[in-house]
Specification:
Keywords: Membrane, Transmembrane, Transmembrane helix. This protein is mainly alpha-helical. It has one domain. A two-stranded antiparallel ribbon has the order 1-2. The two termini are about 15 Å apart.
Length: about 170
């Protein structure tokens, strides 16, 4: 696999693994002291048991750590343009919000799940803004020529993930 392919794979693993790790390691957030039949759910809980979810979350966390280490090392060596962290960081934060938000939405409570409402009302727009920022920043980085030649003559149209000269 080429350096570019490895970096793209690591970036995909990082951004996709964070919500899975957060969801799996957080566990089901039901109110203590009540049976499942006594609880109210905004959305029903996952059929995956907490033990299996924890294993999935731990595996995702290991993958995220490895991908993050690879990307940090690549940025230090100059193989990854550091400006791409402005794309990856918002996606990681959005993924964390999604993973935690899913556990909040499926939490069993007595009465209304205020956290679910706040997750939808506040978390939804924040996630949308982070993803839109990442898309815009990624497009801007991918279509700009590294030496500043952005005249629109095709010189800046190729997508680049590595820094100039790498």
């Amino acid at each position: 696999m080429s350096t570019r392919g490895a970096l793209l794979t690591a970036a995909a693993v990082l951004t996709a693994g964070v919500p899975v790790a957060a969801w799996g390691l957080m566990g089901q957030q039901d109110a203590d002291g009540f049976s499942a039949s006594e609880l109210d759910y905004t959305y029903g809980p996952s059929p995956v048991t907490d033990g299996i979810a924890a294993l999935i979350g731990a595996f995702a966390l290991v993958l995220v750590a490895a991908a993050g280490a690879l990307l940090v090392r690549a940025a230090d060596r100059g193989a990854l343009d550091r400006r791409w962290w402005g794309v990856l960081a918002p996606l990681v934060v959005a993924g964390l919000i999604v993973g935690v938000g899913l556990r909040i939405l499926t939490a069993g409570v007595i009465g209304a799940n205020i956290g679910a409402g706040l997750t939808i009302v506040l978390g939804g727009p924040v996630v949308a803004a982070l993803v839109l920022w990442a898309l815009g920043r990624g497009w801007w980085l991918a279509t700009r020529h590294p030496d500043g030649d952005n005249r629109g003559d095709g010189g800046g149209r190729s997508i680049r993930i590595a820094s100039h000269g790498a």
